[in-house]
């Protein structure tokens, strides 16, 4: 049984940050009801690749949820929402600031109906400040925070991260902030507004960069495959491919010289006496190391490093990563049966408990799959539900109807 069993989450978010947040909460046992637009639902449903017409992007981050397709612009749709919010512990949305007020589902209105609600807004720049009115996207946030200015090869074009770090980062930040607010609610009975900004999410991650800038105004520059401070802590070329070797301290460096590379004289080489000196001479250091490592394959060097206690590992492509024996043994790949897609894999949860469970038990819902079930739970009669469907206020998925 998950540690959040009994918590009720109402999710009106879409695409990535909000849905990732609520997926994590669902994995931890919370009951998540996803509110989607009547036409098309969550925008990620239109993002490929598709299997049997269903988006696998949507599938990956919406497991363990129920879906109700609801027209929030209609008065009847608002009434359904108000009934749902009365029973919720948490509400998550990622509309642009101002939209929820125009819909009549803003925090001030919602807390009139449920004073204990934890109302989480995820937006590009937050609910206040000179940029609050702007739409926010992961890539724009990567540029704003300085991340792209320090990513890539020296002198090259600024590069983005290979994944949507700030979308996922905002979702993770929302999770721990919601949980903190939930603990506060359990202690005091009081709910509150939670304001999460994509543009702020990643800024605290630049810890070493901030230390250098605030102390001596150093502006971090791109370092490509190398670490910004430590050396050798980087990609190293072997005979067949590249590998990662990490010597973050003197002891590990000496192990690399003595037990892996067979170069004990490097320990006393004036160029390499300290980490800072090695970093200053990293071009020479890399060249000399690769003169040795390019004589044998990565598997040979990784095994040597492991025997010597030097952190090292392969540079996998994504397929190799997902089939890695360690991830498989740690249950990081799960399989679920989807009514349209069929048998499909998802990435598992990195959270492991000794007493409670992480539950991955149902696939991502079809659009409006649980509309009737959710309304029945609110006390709506079959006649009332049918009338709402006929009026276009809600939509119930039917396998007999082509979407």
Automatic annotation (TrEMBL):
PANTHER family: SUCCINATE--HYDROXYMETHYLGLUTARATE COA-TRANSFERASE
GO molecular function annotation: transferase activity
Keyword terms of this UniProt record: Transferase
Organism: Mesobacillus maritimus
Name of protein: CoA transferase
Pfam families: CoA_transf_3
Alphabetical list of InterPro entries matching this protein: CoA-transferase_III_domain, CoA-Trfase_fam_III, CoA-Trfase_III_dom3_sf, CoA-Trfase_III_dom_1_sf
């Amino acid at each position: 049984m998950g540690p959040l069993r009994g918590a009720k989450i109402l999710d009106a978010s879409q695409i990535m940050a909000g849905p990732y947040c609520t997926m994590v909460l669902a994995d931890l046992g919370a009951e998540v009801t996803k509110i989607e637009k009547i036409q098309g639902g969550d925008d990620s449903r239109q993002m490929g690749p598709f299997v049997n017409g269903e988006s696998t992007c949507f599938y990956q981050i919406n497991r363990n949820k129920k879906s109700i397709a609801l027209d929030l612009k209609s008065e009847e749709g608002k009434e359904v929402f108000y009934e749902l919010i009365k029973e919720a512990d948490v509400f998550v949305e990622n509309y642009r600031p101002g939209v929820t007020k125009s819909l009549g589902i803003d925090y001030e209105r919602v807390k009139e109906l449920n004073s204990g609600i934890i109302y989480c807004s995820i937006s590009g720049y937050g609910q206040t400040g000179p940029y609050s009115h702007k739409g926010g996207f992961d890539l724009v946030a990567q540029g704003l925070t300085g991340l792209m200015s320090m990513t890539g090869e020296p002198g090259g074009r600024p590069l983005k991260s290979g994944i949507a770090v700030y979308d996922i980062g905002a979702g993770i930040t929302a999770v721990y902030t919601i949980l903190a607010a939930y603990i506060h609610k359990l202690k005091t009975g009081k709910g509150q507004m939670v304001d999460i900004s994509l543009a702020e999410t990643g800024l605290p991650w630049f810890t070493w960069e901030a230390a250098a800038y605030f102390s001596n105004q150093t502006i971090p520059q791109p370092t490509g495959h190398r670490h910004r401070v430590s050396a050798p802590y980087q990609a190293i070329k072997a005979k067949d491919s590249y590998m990662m070797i990490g010597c973050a301290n003197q002891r590990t460096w000496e192990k690399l010289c003595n037990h892996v590379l067979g170069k004990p004289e490097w320990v006393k080489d004036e160029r390499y006496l300290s980490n800072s000196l090695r970093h200053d001479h990293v071009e020479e250091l890399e060249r000399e190391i690769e003169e040795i490592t390019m004589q044998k394959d990565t598997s040979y060097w990784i095994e040597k490093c492991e025997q010597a206690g030097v952190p090292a590992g392969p540079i996998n492509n994504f397929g190799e990563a997902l089939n890695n024996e360690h991830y498989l043994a740690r249950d990081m790949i799960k399989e679920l049966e989807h009514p349209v897609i069929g048998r499909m894999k998802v990435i598992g949860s990195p959270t492991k408990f000794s007493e409670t469970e992480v539950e991955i038990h149902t696939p991502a819902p079809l659009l409006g799959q649980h509309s009737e079930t959710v309304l029945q739970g609110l006390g709506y009669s079959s006649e009332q539900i049918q009338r709402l469907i006929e009026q276009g206020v809600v939509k119930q998925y039917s396998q007999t109807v082509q979407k």
